[in-house]
Amino acid sequence: MNAFTTWLTRRNPLLTDAQRRRCERLPRAAALSVAPLNTQRFVVVDVETTGLNLHRDQVLSIGAVVIDQGAIHFAEQFERTLQREYQTPGPSVLIHGIAPSEIAAGDDPAEVLLDFMEFVGNSPLLAFHAGFDQRMLTRAMKESLGYKLPNPFIDLAHLAPLLCPQVRFPNAGLDDWLEHFGLQVQQRHNASADALVSAELALILFNRARRQQLDSPDLLARRVSNWKRRQAHAL
């Protein structure tokens, strides 16, 4: 048994041997690339949760879609519901519409999270308000797998105002940007639907990024980091 397996076993006695082996085989995420955006594979992700508390609430469903070579790959989509213990339905059910019966019939969280990480591979992740998705997924993987999510995130909620400074949206949400760019939404507050429309927004933003000489994931992430620091100093 190698050191990684020993670490997993110590932290996660309920994982099966097969699940531990799958954890071991997960690719280690690479640093953000300096290659052009339209040569990259990205995974756009959205999660639905029991609520907004980063320390107490749980991930209920994960939706994801792939952007590869500058296009959305509709054949590569991920959508799963995680099985959770019964909870009295809260206000979040009115938003995402996942009924307790669906949650009870969901799949083992460890299996869903392993499947998701195998789907992601070493690709960077995109999300709108990525900090929330990243922290919820990170905690879910720690609790269910003893695994630290290694993939870097790029936040579309920061990328949009950075690339479109002429648009004045105070505290803009996803719906504001979708309306601004004329994107049609068939369904909202569903993980897979939100991931898909976020991917459409990402392609628009990537096109603007290329025109602004920000044609790589590494450049985008560094510029977003600088933009966030400027915003913090301006407060």
Automatic annotation (TrEMBL):
Listed GO molecular functions? exonuclease activity
Checking Pfam families in the record gives: RNase_T
The record's listing under InterPro entries reads: Ribonucl_H (IPR013520), RNaseH-like_sf (IPR012337), RNaseH_sf (IPR036397)
Q: Which UniProt keywords apply?
A: Exonuclease, Hydrolase, Nuclease
The Exonuclease domain, residue ranges: 41-211
Q: What is this protein called?
A: 3'-5' exonuclease
